[in-house]
Amino acid sequence: AEDAGGDAEERGGEGADVGDYLGVVLDGFGDDGVDGEVAFLGGHWWPGRLPAMRWPWSSSSTERDGKISVSSSDFPIATDWSHYRDPRNIVPVVVLTGSAFVLSTFYRSYLKRIPQAINIGPKYWRKRSLFGKVTSVGDADNFRLFHTPGGRLAGWGLLPWRRVPGTARELKDKTVHIRLAGIDAPEMAHFGNPAQPFSKEAFDFLTSYVLHRHVRAYVHKRDQYDRAVATVYVRRWLLRRDVGLQMLKRGLATVYEAKSGAEYGNMEEKYRKAEKWARLKRMGMWGGSEKGYESPREYKTRIGQVKPTK
Prior knowledge:
This protein has 310 residues and is α+β, with helices and mostly antiparallel strands. Helices cover 27% and strands 22% of the residues. Helix 6 (243-249) runs parallel beside helix 7 (268-280).
């Protein structure tokens, strides 16, 4: 074996050092009386000659008379981790990972669109607001809002893929149903019931005031109809206006009356003052005789939409 190993080293050069991995062809090894060539492969000696092979990852490997000579440097035994500990490699990875996390968090918190009221998370109620475009008005105190987070700064109305749909079919299940907080407007005709006086005037005012405009809704809670009860502001003549307050001042709504569940958004006192002022000025629904007056709450109780308060 020593003679064979020496012969292999003489013929194979550096290839003999990696015989355990590659296999080495030896001549003249024949203690069993067999004269010829044998090969060392996988820790065993085999009679015959290894087939010629060319290693695809190394251009330095050569074929010589059916034998292979490969440098041991082509087969590193251990991984060199110094490359991964180099600050020049670590710092960019940390910066990119941190930036991706921050951007992802910012997007989810401020730029992710909310399609419906049921999708508003707990972190929004009484803390955050929704900015968007009013797509339809359903009654004199509620409407549909298409959420456009970030507004024009986020590309809404400027980029082709950041646009508000224009048809009812495109808007289906993509708008937040908003109920104005703290007020109750005269009821329109529903389910065969007659409309209240000034219900059309209130509906027309709300439509002209907010439809197709961008508003900001400070959401307080979700009601039993899956609407977001909110205090809503709109820009009119560069001034920020509270929509509910404007309806109270014009006598087109009353302060919402309920023993429990009423939501005013810290505006109850201001709303009651506006209603009192409208009564004194006989604005809107207060212009007629108070003897036959029926509030929206009383109307809904009479027709059975709400339970009477005790």
